[in-house]
Design a protein that fits this description.
The complex is a heterodimer of chains A (about 600) and B (about 325).
Chain A: E1 11-20, E2 25-34, E3 39-43, H1 50-56, E4 65-75, E5 81-83, H2 89-95, E6 100-103, H3 107-110, H4 117-127, H5 134-147, H6 154-157, H7 166-178, E7 184-188, H8 196-213, E8 216-221, H9 224-230, E9 233-238, E10 241-247, H10 248-253, H11 258-266, H12 289-296, H13 308-311, E11 347-356, E12 359-369, E13 374-378, H14 385-393, E14 400-405, E15 408-409, H15 419-424, E16 425-428, H16 432-435, H17 442-453, H18 458-471, H19 488-500, E17 506-510, H20 518-535, E18 538-543, H21 549-552, E19 555-560, E20 563-569, H22 570-575, H23 580-588
Helix pairs in contact in A: 4-5, 4-7, 5-7, 7-8, 11-20, 17-18, 17-19, 18-19, 19-20
Chain B: H1 2-29, H2 34-39, H3 45-55, H4 61-74, H5 87-122, H6 127-141, H7 144-157, H8 180-209, H9 212-219, H10 224-261, H11 267-276, H12 280-307, H13 310-315
The chains are: A alpha/beta (about 600), B mainly alpha (about 325).
Chain lengths: ~600, ~325
């Protein structure tokens, strides 16, 4: 090991320029350097070129990209700096995996599904001639597995990737990268797609390994909360240029560039500040259940009147005395909500159970959503939250239990629901990239529910479409475009417009922000809150991100393993979580 | 895994049984009367009746089917009406001869197709890729008899008279005792089948080469040879095996035309002769044989698919 005093940078990129084959610039002169043991976070949104900049450190450019200028120099433990982009193929190969290693974003796609994990780690060691004997190499495999907190026994090494959970797969990826004790690791959003508990574990592992081996790490991410947890320095990348670079403290606390400020304010906070461009969020520190109920209906208090939610709800008057099962564990309604709040719920789910064969997805789930209220359904992947929202929408499997709308029960499948019922319950899907028909214009997509579920004539439909697009802050001119011509955020707005065009009583939002960048997420969350206030729609907001709670929800129901383990108002759940799992989630959610 | 394979096997047997039913019914519907075909137009009704009786053609249909099926199961394919000898004896040598063609063409075209497809995928968008794609499309568009005739013209008669165009098979001497006469039939079959395998392999390989695990293998610093053979090809094989199976199954039928063209003494020739002679038992036996090849080849493809997919392999471990 060389002393940090004599070695200033392990990895240094100078004026990196990369174009697409068509000549469109992807990186316009990116420079960064990382000292041994240091973690540099490369922050940017999708399309900013951060993965390209990271892969350049390994001398790799993806198909369709051409390196047009700049150098990357890599200083390994044994002295001489190597110019990664200028050496021959053979020498570059000998660097990859041994001196500079890569940890990919999606471990499920990056581990060879047909090879046992021990073999996949072992082949790095073999290729780079680690150790002198097979015994030494297999000892190292066991050692590195233990280092990332996985079992190191023979039977574990003989597993295939599909036999591991996402978090375990990612730790195998990390073990593979650290197997040869590299001087530099490039981590490309390694925790995207992992739940917060696993994310914390992975972040800790990475931090421990980089410190222990004095490894320089380039950590690519779009999540500033993660940056705050792990990085020493931050470089902010935008449109292929580094717009700001400095210590993590500096950049996150006192961002100098406008874009960085925008990114920082867009990060959702557990305590409710930030996440909006307006960012008012004057929520009282302690609230009574009663005030929490009405106050929660005004998201982030954008200075409008307090009567908003209570007056703007349609149809709630006729919703009569359906049994709301106030004692059910899933019924999140606080008992003492005060007279005017004790209405019957618009949407009521009781005793819902779904099984696929022997596998129980949902078990006896009950919840209620009132007009103008937003219930956050919080759960990790596999908790059954999407199944639940699909059952509500009538898209799911046959289920036991009842879903009722304003007191009248809904059929399990959309085919047996009336047009009026279908109109009243609308769904916004997770990915706006796949939920909009690529061959239909936005206006056609938005018009479709009106066509099938209402008897409005063509003129009235057109007027309604234009009005709805405006309502989701989308220029009606976008109506003539195809989804391909829109950004992710614009597409999600269009998808929301499609759901709202029939003025539903219940809007189901299934992870609507998780496919979007953080700053876009903030604008979508703002939009949903405003729409809820304007239209008085009841919302079921399904998410895995507890940090969004104060930004969108009035109440939270925490779903785990198909059961509601905790429910209550946002303040109750975040302030004094009663279930172990909720406490764990709160503890593991990174804060800035 | 074994349960999965056993299930596939059971399905195959069921399909084969359905085929026997179809074959039997189809031959019932064939125009013409076997007895009259054997005895000629001048046969007296008494002689025809006698022969019908001898061939068991008087018995009810279901009984004839069961008799025949029983024979098939025990390896007795009946008696050829034309040659009066057992069908098994008639076909014995010919099956061997056809198998030589089939296996030869199958091995060459599979290896060639996989190699060309992989090579082409690795050189995507370059001249090699365009050449391979273009050529394979042209060849794939030609019917097998056109390819056969073209081969005869080029390599046997007009341009380069180096290879025999007609197979000479003196009785008692196996066809492969003169290897040069196998070249053209095998080449013709290979040319028909290879383009499909090449194109499918190219498409699958392109997809696999863009996958995360291939990129990861390269970023681990593995030599390109290892990346291709260990990380890319095994994933491309599964889907391509299905296409190979369909192509090889096609070979079993395509062999009829090619054998006819080169006067090759295989089952294809025998089938054509048998149809001309109304030799029902032989037609049944050969049709069944070709169907069996289809089924076996597809079964092998399914098993390869299961073997190359660890998820399917593990399914049974539960």
């Amino acid at each position: 090991m060389t002393a940090p005093a004599t070695l200033t940078h392990t990895l240094a990129a100078r004026d990196l320029r990369v174009d697409t084959v068509a000549g469109h610039p992807v990186l316009k002169g990116v420079s960064y350097e990382i000292a041994p043991g240091e973690v540099l976070a490369l922050v940017g949104e999708s399309g900013s070129g951060k993965t390209t900049a990271g892969l350049a450190a390994l001398g790799h450019f993806r198909r369709g990209l051409v390196h047009t200028g700049g150098t990357v120099s890599l200083q390994s433990d044994d002295g001489e700096p190597v110019s990664v982009l200028e050496v021959g193929d053979r020498e570059r190969r000998s660097l990859r995996g041994s001196t500079v290693a890569y940890i990919p974003q999606d471990p499920a796609a990056s581990l060879n599904p047909a090879l046992r994990i021990g073999r996949q780690i072992g082949e790095v060691l073999e290729t780079h001639g680690y150790g002198t004997s097979a015994a030494e190499r297999s000892a190292r495999i066991a050692e590195v597995l233990a280092e990332v907190g996985l079992p190191d026994d023979e039977s574990y090494q003989r597993r295939y990737p599909h036999e591991l959970s996402g978090g375990q797969q990612q730790r195998v990826g990390i073990a593979m990268a650290f197997a040869c004790r590299p001087s530099v690791v490039v981590l490309d959003e390694p925790t995207t797609g992992l739940d917060v508990t696993t994310q914390t574990l992975v972040l800790r592992t990475v931090a421990a390994l980089t410190t222990e081996h004095d490894t320089a790490a380039l950590y690519i991410t779009h999540d500033l909360a993660v940056v705050a947890t792990i990085a020493h320095r931050v470089a902010v990348l935008r449109h292929g240029e580094v717009v700001e670079c400095g210590s993590a403290e500096e950049v996150l606390r006192a961002p100098s560039h406008a874009y960085t400020r925008e990114l920082v304010t867009a990060v959702p906070h557990l305590d409710g500040t930030g996440a909006t461009s307006t960012s008012a969020a004057e929520r009282p520190e302690s609230v009574t259940p009663e005030s929490a109920g009405s106050n929660g209906a005004e998201p982030d208090g954008v200075g409008s009147n307090g009567a908003s939610a209570d007056t703007a709800e349609p149809d709630s008057a006729e919703a009569d005395s359906a049994d709301s099962n106030g004692t059910q564990p899933g019924d999140a309604a606080p008992a003492a909500t005060g007279g005017d709040r004790a209405r019957t719920p618009v949407l009521s789910v009781s005793g819902l159970s779904v099984s696929y064969g022997d596998h129980r997805v949902l078990h006896d789930v009950s919840l209620d959503v009132r007009a103008g209220e937003c219930l956050m359904l919080l759960g990790e992947s596999g908790s059954g939250k999407t199944t639940l929202s699909q059952c509500v929408a009538g898209l799911g499997e046959p289920h036991a239990g009842t879903v009722s709308l304003s007191g009248s029960p809904l059929a399990t499948s959309t085919q047996r629901r009336t047009a009026e019922q279908l109109r009243s319950v609308q769904y916004v899907f997770q990915s706006p990239y796949s939920s909009l028909n690529p061959r239909k214009t936005i206006a056609q997509s938005v018009e479709l529910p009106l066509r099938t579920l209402t008897d409005l004539d063509a003129t009235a439909r057109r007027a309604r479409v234009a009005e709805t697009l405006e309502r989701v802050r989308l220029d009606p001119a976008f109506g003539d475009r195809l989804p391909d011509e829109l950004s992710g955020g614009q597409r999600q707005r269009a998808a929301i417009a499609r759901a709202l065009v029939t003025t539903p009583e219940v809007l189901l939002c299934d992870e609507v922000t998780s496919a979007l960048d953080v700053s876009v997420q903030a604008t979508i969350v703002d939009l949903l809150c405003e729409l809820r206030r304007e239209l008085g729609t009841a919302m079921l907001f399904v998410t895995h991100n507890i940090a969004l709670a104060r930004h969108v929800a009035d109440r939270i129901a925490v779903l785990r393993g198909g059961e509601v383990v905790e429910s209550g108002t946002v303040d109750e759940v975040l302030g004094s979580p009663s279930h172990e799992y909720t406490r764990e989630l709160l503890a593991n959610t990174p804060r800035m | 895994m074994f349960r999965l394979i056993l299930r596939r096997l059971a399905i195959s047997v069921a399909v084969l049984w359905l085929v026997t039913l179809l074959v039997f019914v189809a031959t019932l519907l064939l125009p013409g009367d076997p007895a009259r075909a054997i005895l000629g137009q001048q046969a007296t009704p008494e002689r025809i009746a006698a022969l019908n009786d001898q061939l068991g053609l008087d018995a009810p249909v279901w009984q004839r089917y069961l008799d025949w099926l029983g024979g098939v199961v025990t390896g007795d394919l009946g008696t050829s009406a034309a040659s009066q000898g057992p069908v098994t004896e008639l076909l014995g040598g010919r099956i061997g001869a056809s198998l030589v063609l089939l296996v030869g063409a199958a091995v060459i075209s599979t290896v060639l197709g996989l190699a060309l497809g992989t090579w082409s995928a690795l050189r995507r968008g370059r001249a090699v890729d365009h050449t391979v794609s273009g050529l394979s499309l042209v060849v794939a568009a030609l019917p097998e008899f056109v390819i056969g005739v073209a081969l005869i013209v080029v390599l046997s008669t007009t341009v380069l008279p180096v290879l025999p165009s007609v197979t000479l098979a003196p009785p008692g001497e196996p066809v492969w005792s003169r290897p040069s006469q196998l070249v053209l039939p095998i080449l013709a079959l290979t040319l028909v089948v290879t383009p499909y395998i090449t194109r499918m392999m190219r498409a699958t390989m392109s997809e696999v080469l863009d996958s995360g695990y291939v990129e990861m293998a390269r970023l681990k610093g593995l030599p390109e040879r290892v990346v291709i053979t260990r990380h890319a090809v095994p994933h491309a094989i599964g889907p391509v095996a299905q296409v190979i199976a369909i192509q090889l199954a096609w070979l079993a039928g395509g062999v009829v035309v090619v054998e006819f063209l080169f006067r090759y003494p295989g089952i294809g020739q025998a089938l054509i002769d048998a149809v001309n002679n109304r030799d029902v038992e032989v037609v049944q036996a050969i049709t069944l044989l070709i169907a069996a090849v289809y089924i076996v080849v597809n079964l092998i493809a399914d098993i390869v698919g299961i073997m190359t997919n660890p998820k399917l392999r593990a399914e049974v471990a539960r």
